[in-house]
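Sorry to interrupt, but I need a hand with the structure work. Could you write out one complete protein record for me, on any chain you like? Could you add the entry underneath, on a fresh line?
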Amino acid sequence: MLPDAFAPDALHLAELPSVPLHQRQTLPELAACYFVLEPGGDVLYIGKTGNLRKRFLSHHRLADFAQEAQPVRVTWLITTDAQLLSQIERLCIDFWRPRYNQKPLPAFLTMMVPPALMEELDTYMTAQQEERPLARLTRSDVCRDILETFLTHQRTPRSTTRPTKKKGTSDAA
C-alpha cells in the first residue's frame, strides 16, 4: 500500500540524483522509479525497474531520448518494494503525462481527423494548459475524450417506438 504522504506534485525531480543520458553506464544497480528529463525539467518518460543501470543499457526508448534537441538526464527515486514501485510509477505517469508514455492515436483516427481540426485541438490544449497547468493534456487525450463522448452518445438507447395516438383522434389536421 502506498503511503498517504506520497504525492507526485510534492516530488522535486531536480533534487533527486541524476546523470546525463550519455553517462548512463554510471547509473547505480538498484530498483527505482526513473524519470527522463529535458534540460528545462519537463518529463519525457517515466518508468520502473529492478536494475536502473541494466535498464538503460538497452532501453527500448534509448534512440528516442538520444534524438531529443537538448541532452536529457535520467533521474530516479529509489524504491525497493516492487508493489510500491508500480504504484508510484502509475501515479507519476498520471500526474506528468510524459510524451513518451502516451499511446499514439490509432492510425485510422489520425487519417480521419482533418489537419484544421488538429490545429484547433492544439489551440484548445494550449488554452487548457494555461487554465490548468498541471493537467498536462496531450492531443491523444483530447481526441480520446472526444471519441469516448461520441461513442457514449452512439450507445445511448433511443426510443424506437412511435408515439401512440389517443383514441378518438385522427391523422387529419
